[in-house]
């Protein structure tokens, strides 16, 4: 599978990774991996089963034996559609806590490699370019100011009819950035050779255009 191209898109929360990766995959007809969803699924399973968030071994087992599938934009866990449930703030925070555990990351490693199928893959997360697909021909590090990202999350929540508080959002966002950036294993940093794209002043479509341009230059 090493000849199958991968576009790795990493960055902090609400930088637009999911939106941009998804659109780039659509444009190129590539598969799409939302690696954060795997950590969220593990977190949701743990919360529901009451698994202790410090029991690394039990959490890794959960991650390894998760019966999940991704079909037509829906995320299924043990026959239940959890597409919306995994987006809850509590699940995101729990995901970022258990993502710091080496055994959990190890348990999700093979699952992620399996998404690499012809004709290609766009993968988004925190360590796509650094750990999972270090030989990806194109690596992008998407970022945006904390204010811009909090604003984006706020809008997303309001559009979904969920009430949101800007101050809480800012605090959550900074706490998660801090945890993801400073953890010992697979911390959030631009991969070697990654193109860094600050999208604070860009629309999602402009970011998509830039990524497609870089990719075209790469495969030329
Ligand atoms: O996956 P990640 O948490 O990085 O971000 P997302 O879930 O894709 O959310 C980003 C939100 O900001 C979406 O509502 C996008 O439409 C919007 N947005 C963006 O993604 N990129 C921009 N340059 C501007 C806005
Ligand atoms: O959408 P958002 O950027 O807020 O989060 P996500 O991509 O769904 O990921 C949720 C959490 O999982 C992140 O805060 C990370 O701690 C963790 N994660 C990770 O450690 N490695 C990845 N490749 C993807 C997510």
Could you walk me through the main structural features you see in this protein, from its secondary elements to its overall organization?
Pfam families: Cytidylate_kin. Belongs to the cytidylate kinase family. Type 1 subfamily. One of its GO terms (molecular function) is ATP binding. The protein is α/β, with parallel strands linked by helices and 220 residues long. The chain is 50% helix and 15% strand. The protein is built from nine helices and eight strands. A hairpin with a 2-residue loop joins strand 4 (74-77) and strand 5. The two termini are 20 Å apart. The mean pLDDT is 95.
Brief rundown of the structure:
It is found in: Cytoplasm. This protein is an alpha/beta fold and 220 residues long.
Proportion of helical residues:
40-55%
Mean pLDDT: 95
Structural class assignment: alpha/beta
Question: SSE order, as H and E?
Answer: EHEHHEEEHHEHEHHEH
Low-pLDDT stretches = none
Distance between the termini: 20 Å
* Strand tally: 8
Bound molecules: cytidine-5'-diphosphate
Enumerate the strands of the largest sheet in spatial order, edge to edge or round the barrel: 2-6-1-7-8
The whole-angstrom Rg is: 17 Å
Outline, from the CA principal axes? Answer: globular
Subcellular location: Cytoplasm
Enzyme class: transferase
GO cellular component, one term: cytosol
Catalytic activity: CMP + ATP = CDP + ADP; dCMP + ATP = dCDP + ADP
């Amino acid at each position: 599978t090493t000849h199958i191209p991968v576009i790795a898109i990493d960055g902090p929360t609400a930088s637009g990774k999911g939106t941009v990766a998804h659109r780039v995959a659509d444009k190129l007809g590539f598969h799409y991996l939302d690696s954060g969803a795997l950590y969220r699924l593990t977190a949701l399973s743990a919360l529901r089963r009451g698994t202790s968030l410090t029991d690394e071994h039990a959490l890794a087992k959960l991650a390894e034996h998760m019966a999940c599938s991704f079909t037509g934009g829906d995320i299924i866990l043990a026959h239940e559609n959890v597409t919306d449930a995994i987006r809850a703030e509590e699940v995101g925070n729990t995901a970022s806590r258990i993502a710091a555990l080496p055994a959990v990351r190890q348990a999700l490693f093979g699952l992620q490699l399996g998404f690499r199928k012809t004709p290609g893959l766009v993968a988004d997360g925190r360590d796509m370019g650094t750990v999972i697909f270090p030989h990806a021909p194109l690596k992008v590090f998407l970022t945006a100011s904390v204010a811009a990202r909090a604003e984006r999350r706020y809008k997303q929540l309001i559009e979904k009819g969920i009430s949101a508080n800007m101050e809480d959002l800012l605090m959550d966002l900074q706490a998660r950035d801090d945890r993801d950036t400073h953890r010992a294993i697979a911390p959030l940093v631009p991969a070697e050779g990654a193109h860094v794209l600050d999208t604070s002043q860009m629309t999602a479509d402009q970011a998509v255009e830039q990524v497609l341009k870089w990719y075209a230059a790469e495969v030329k």
